[in-house]
Amino acid sequence: MIIAYWFVGGLLAVFYLYAGGLKVLRSRERLRPMMAWVDDMPMPMVRGIGSVELLGAVGLILPPLTGLACGLAPAAATGFVVLQVAAIVVHLRRGDRAIALNIGLLVAACAAACLATAWQ
Prior knowledge:
The protein is an all-alpha fold. It has helices at residues 2-25, 28-31, 43-66, 72-93, 100-118.
């Protein structure tokens, strides 16, 4: 269980560190080719989503690694489940049917949440 959590949680953390970092640091024009939805959101909201992704990635890794506040790992994974459900809704409302990545991240976040609670 622990190895499975580190595999899934580690992959999620790497993805969200990258995606969150882009949202926090890049301009709307540089985000647009990868994330067309940024045109529908104010930039402070995009930056906020990026910040939440960065904090969630830290929440997946640091608590289990240090053994402190281990309850934050399932909370972070559950937060990513909520984030991906909201992302799917945004994509579908925009008429964008390319949600395979979001569904994959949703499944991975569900797995990480289950694995994190199983070994605590």
